[in-house]
Records
---
Amino acid sequence: METLRARLGDRLLPGEPLARYTAARLGGPADWLYIARQSTDELVEVVTTAWEQAIPVRVLGGGANVLVSDAGVRGLVVINRVNEVTFGEWHEGRNVAVTSGVGLTVLAHKCQARGLAGMEWAVSVPGTLGGAVVNNAGAHGGDMARVVRDVVVLDAERGPKLMTRADMDYGYRHSCLKARSDRRFLVLMALLALEPDDPQAIQARMQSYIAYRKQTQPPGASLGSIFKNPPGDYAGRLIEAAGLKGYRVGAAQVSPVHANFFINTGQALADDYYQLIRLVQQRVEQESGIRLEPEVELLGFEDH
Ligand SMILES: Cc1cc2nc3c(=O)[nH]c(=O)nc-3n(C[C@H](O)[C@H](O)[C@H](O)COP(=O)(O)OP(=O)(O)OC[C@H]3O[C@@H](n4cnc5c(N)ncnc54)[C@H](O)[C@@H]3O)c2cc1C
């Protein structure tokens, strides 16, 4: 850590609670935390140095799809806020080049203002482009797989690489990057191919998505959908059918509004969430024979 400490000074934070950086406001300390705000160059330099020194690195965007344990995360956690959006006409189309720390909501609004359709589904999805590229985030019939043209990825072993949409092997909340357990890669930016459309029509779609969410999803800090929908069914329906709507472990509760959301009713621990996830998984499997697969990623838990 000495090299990084010399390079970053007091921007390398020891023992910083990750609850401050996750959408659910859960999670214990990172051994070391660095917030990348300045430039992609600095982000690359810090991550590469850590890789070279065999320090475990975890890059987070909005922390909107991770359940971080109360024990926290060992090594270096990087919070990616590198924020650049460039519009242009490349590859015979209207495209946008986006660095991975750009927030999805901000990006949706910028594209709308330019009269470019394709990202409006993301208007109320928390997190960054980097997390969305890895997870193939999507909503309201849209997803990253439909708009990504190329992704620039830095690989710890192989260096920088341009991955096409086909290389990403996108599926429902899946990509080849998400499937990698080593996590020794960094998404730097993506080029998105968008379609020209009337800004007011895009705006109207965005407003209807926001209104739909307000109606169907509980407010406040959460982890979003806890489980993926199994083929041909809905995780929320299965959880409700197992009689678990409103069920609690500690201060974590299966939302009475939407059973695939677990809400923090007070000072929930990450462990409350973890126990609730396991319990719901078991009960749903007993009732329906279907084993729900978590959509959220578990970080810093012993069996992960
Ligand atoms: C209230 C709520 C509603 C939600 N609704 C939706 C929804 O409708 N649709 C949907 O798909 N998701 C939804 N989510 C989940 C979440 O918003 C998405 O998965 C989002 O893409 C996560 O982005 P992030 O930047 O927060 O990723 P993080 O949670 O920070 O990270 C997710 C994974 O990506 C990795 N990662 C992130 N950035 C990089 C990078 N630059 N390089 C390498 N790896 C990286 C992380 O290491 C981690 O493995 C919701 C979440 C919440 C809390």
---
Amino acid sequence: MHVDQLYLDLNAFFASVEQQEEPRLRDRPVAVIPNMVETTCCIAVSYEAKAFGIKTGTAVWRARELCPAIVLLPARHDVYVRYHQRIHDEILRHVPAVAVCSIDEFTTTLGGRDRELAAARALADRIKRGLRETIGPAVTCSIGLAPNRLLAKIAGDMRKPDGLTWILPAEIKEKLAPLALDELPGIGKGNLARLRNAGVGTVSALLDLDPRHARAIWHSVAGERFLRALQGGPYGELDTRRRQISHSQILAPENRSHPMARAVARVLLEKATRRMRREGYCAGRLWVGCRDRSGGRHGVEVRLPATQSDRALLGLFDHLWRRIEVRAEPSLKKVSIGLSDLVAVGARQGDLFIDRRLDIERRDERLAKAVDTIKDRFGASAIRYGAMPKGLAAYTGGRIAFTRIPLPEDCMQ
Ligand SMILES: [Mg+2]
């Protein structure tokens, strides 16, 4: 009767933080949206709003139709990051180590006596009580206990809000069978279609497969790993090596023209390069993308000798952006930038034949570090490369990516 992993998922996190901050919002239907326009969609929905059929991803106009009394609030990512950190600290009062999976999800490996189901349940209750007392009653979580992280996450998803669910090794089949295939984390449209084509229509049928068969269906070893974990085997530790740093933003209406969108994308790139330097990486690839008003997606990328220089990256950005402008409609909805092929600074290969270029590069990197120091002291907008266009809508910083928790300074303007 043992479980090895505890998975904690906060319920309707952004919306419940707003309810915690503002008691009159408790028990009311609340949705958090990226910016105050009718064309955007809800990014977090309180359980009172869910009762009306509103979900994450529901368009604002549709949410109003489903529930005219809904309270719509613009996202305040800096506040959510502060809560995330306090929650992290509280969990650490109960367990020796915790891995952060996203802004609202944490997992910890149980050891010793805590692996015994009764003890694990008592631990989960203590964490819940601790969060209630130190964070507040409006912020609740669902906890899953299981033989590995994948099954613990699935268990946690089974009862929301404020659930505590477990899956023992002997119960895997019985507890997973009622789920639909696409309720399993990691099974998206593509995998679902491939599973159907292979004659696998239910979770039970998937559990009966030989894991090597899953590798063939997925066209990847990831399928085999996934199925082995679903059957109760070990699941890879969280991969903490960084492969890319990316930022994107849904544009406020004032920022949708090409010059404004370009300015937003440049700010995102400055944030990403600063973060990359802080973490000690250089990028070997830069990409820039956008979505235009009719949904067209355009992306361009370039490979480069690994660098962490703002000047080099912003120069390449300008070049890539000109290619975006030719392709995209005049009005854009979203911009994204990404730095990938990351290598640790120490592991970077020098280009021995172009000493001069390397000299310039190092000088630029020193300049970038000086700019970082100024931003650390006086805020991210204290110094910028190039002028910002007039009328740029505020709050271009600190959006929360699914797997990356911004530091408080990322949220500063
Ligand atoms: Mg959640």
